[in-house]
Amino acid sequence: MDSRIVVERAWLSHDRRRINYSYKGTGLAAKFFFGRPLFYAEYEVDLGEVPESTLLIPLVANLAPIAWLAGVPLVVPTLDAKFLTALGQVKVVFMKDYPEISDEDSLLQVERPIESEIRGSKHAMLFSGGVDAYATFFRHREEELDLISIRGADIPVEDFAQWQRLVDLNAREPILSAHAKRHIEANLRDFYTYHVSLLIPTKAWWGTVQHGLALTALVAPLAYVLGYSKVYIASSYTNAVQIVWGSTPEIDNAIRWSGCEVEHDGYELKRVDKIGLVVSKTSAAHVKVNLRVCYSELNDGLNCSNCEKCFRTMLGLSLFGANPAEFGFEVRSDTYRNMIDMIGSGFKGAGSRYFWWELSERMRIVGPSDVHLLGAAGDYWVLESELRDGLGKPIRAKGPGSFKLALIERFPMAFAFYLMIRRRFS
Q1: Phi, psi dihedral angles at 279 (to 5 degrees)
Q2: For the chain, what percentages of helix, strand and coil (3-state, to nearest 5) are there?
Q3: CA 113 centroid distance within chain
Q4: Are 220 and 118 in contact (CB under 8 A)?
Q5: Rounded to whole angstroms, what are the CA distances from 272 to 236, 288, 315, 355, 374?
Q6: Is 47:225 a contact under the CB 8 Å cutoff?
Q7: Which residue of 99, 175, 181, 410 has the smallest Cβ count within 10 Å?
Q8: 81-97 and 57-70 helices, crossing angle to 10°
Q9: What is the pLDDT of residues 189-207, one digit of tens each?
Q10: Residue 131: how many CA atoms within 13 Å on its side-chain side?
Q11: Beta strands 122-126 and 146-151: pairing type?
Q12: What's this model's pTM, rounded to 2 decimal places?
């Protein structure tokens, strides 16, 4: 049997808010979806007037990179013509990072491309509540942005408690009160098997391949209903660090569909600059915001305040004179010592090490009187010294092996129970 991925159709639920999809992998492509639930996307608006060519955009955006890296055709009954063109441009970008992609073997075959004339004027942004998101929000808040949060991206679909905390948090933030909050749910990370992650050397499919295209394309049906002409996605990195990542200006700025385009925002800003921007804007507005940056599997609140990402955000805030406790973090008596221990264990990747280099440069130029200390002054100076030394050490190996990925997929309930025990006793 020929190996290919075949999309059959999209259809709406009874209340017309959920898009269900029918598709399959044949031949060698069957292993990418075997035993996994079908992809879906759920919204809070009536999608009854959205054409199938637009309804299929979220699915095709997630299947296309799999087809590219697997070297199999992707067959689709219909698709928005502008998005079809955009995918061709995005594929060219991926071919630079993954030269093993064969353009001929992974063709996107669309039976009926649909040209549509849709005029919208509203703007929206993907909003996670983190530093990158808030920096983009403050840069464009005068555009009366809709704020779109996605369940199934960094928050698993089944984690109702953490999702509800995010929804409640955004609803309570005074600075966000004038902006409509939109929510989308999709099983973005659960519809494929671990064989997809094995298509790339890092096995980090979500971060290095999937997320930029997947998240922005999810907005397409909502954009059709609400009339968005532009959707912002905040940058993760800057051109000062070159790593393979699934959301870049080259990828995101190529994404578009009828009536709407995507803009990768803030690429010219270092992350430490974004932290400074958030501190400056909140100070000028006489408000504080609760940043949500923690992706630790042990986190059962807003931020664990004890992982690498929490540590560098807390340190960054303090280097601009801000108290992290006023931005959603818990400052403990051993915070500096824990940072020192973490740095001593080595950095997990080039991206992480670069962010800490930015902080080291900020520590070098900022005066002690401008720093909000998170502990004893002596520990601060030890941290500065240890950070300089740590930046010169090799990056330590990271990433889940294929065996671990297979175990997590085969025994998801056992893994969830394991995480619950770790959270309880950590």
Answers
A1: -60, -45
A2: 45, 15, 40
A3: 29
A4: no
A5: 12, 18, 10, 8, 17
A6: yes
A7: 99
A8: 30
A9: 999 999 999 999 999 999 9
A10: 26
A11: parallel
A12: 0.92
- From residue 231, give the alpha-carbon distance in Å to each of 30, 56, 125, 312: 34, 18, 5, 28
CA 129 to chain centroid, in Å, comes to 11
Tell me the C-alpha distance between 314 and 331, whole Å. 8
Mean of per-residue pLDDT scores for the chain: 93
Q: How far, in Å, CA of 114 to CA of 417, rounded?
A: 47
**DSSP label at 366?**
S
Cα separation of 126 and 149, whole Å?
6
Label residues 53-92 b or e (16+ Cβ within 10 Å = b). Answer: bbbbbbbbbbbbbbbbbbbbbbbbbbbbbbbbebbeebbe
161-177: burial string, b at 16+ Cβ within 10 Å, e else: ebbebbeebbeebebbe
Q: Which residues contact 124 (CB under 8 A, 6 or more apart)?
A: 145, 146, 147, 148, 182, 219, 222, 223, 226, 228, 230, 231, 232
CA 134 remoteness from chain centre: 14
| Angle at 100 (CA atoms; ends 96, 102), nearest 5 degrees | 95
Q: Note whether 315 and 359 are within 8 A (CB).
A: yes
Which of 225, 218, 232, 221 lies closest to 261 in space, CA to CA?
232
Helix 350-365 to helix 377-390 angle (10° resolution) is 130
**Per-residue pLDDT reduced to its tens digit, 223-273:** 999 999 999 999 999 988 888 999 999 999 999 999 999 999 999 999 999
